[in-house]
């Protein structure tokens, strides 16, 4: 059996138009070519698809059954062709993107939507991880791109482009002891338990760590839950509170006496310069670079 896409398309058109001649006109072919294609399809399938009685062919029950499957099969064949063409042009078979836990509430989804629009056959996988773990995923190439905060020291293999700023603030539950003060000194912060978002690797020291005593979690949702239980204070994204007005009623932004109670960071798209990035990853990087030029 050797059935090709053109045969299926001709069969589908005959079923839709109701005759060989109408299908021929729609497809820009001569009626004899359509009739021959259907005859060959019947031979290949060893099935009678049309009863040729009277002026127009009458579809058999077999034809009606196969017609229901034909359109989806043609769609899948076209998708397969598009995927093959895209792969030949350098498109990844899949793009893995890791988003640092504190950045889940940023508008990163608009960039994923942009990729889906330009590369509809691309499989996109999104992961979340603490900053240090996200960098490890880039280095070991389990992720091709990472959405991360700026780093004080760059790993030799990483390359990046800035695309926005993000603000984090120190918070405590409104019933917490720290929240009872109009201003909080560094000594008070130092002595209070801190809930910190940190790497799953216990050997990696957490960033934004100020207290002597601290608990670790690998995502800001867990951190927020622990803070709301008055178990400690922590640093959370402002955007997280902006998106959930209820949090603003339950949390207090601490006014730190000795330093500015806002931590503003640039957010970067980061990649491993030793990786052979595919078409979609390069497209996104170039898109963000163009955005930076237009906003300067």
From TrEMBL:
SUPFAM superfamilies: Periplasmic binding protein-like II, Winged helix' DNA-binding domain. The keyword Membrane does not apply. Signal peptide: none annotated. One of its GO terms (molecular function) is DNA-binding transcription factor activity. Pfam families: HTH_1, LysR_substrate. Keywords: DNA-binding, Transcription, Transcription regulation. The keyword Transcription applies. Residues 1-60 form the HTH lysR-type domain. Belongs to the LysR transcriptional regulatory family. This is LysR family transcriptional regulator. It comes from Acinetobacter rongchengensis. The lineage of its organism: Bacteria, Pseudomonadati, Pseudomonadota, Gammaproteobacteria, Moraxellales.
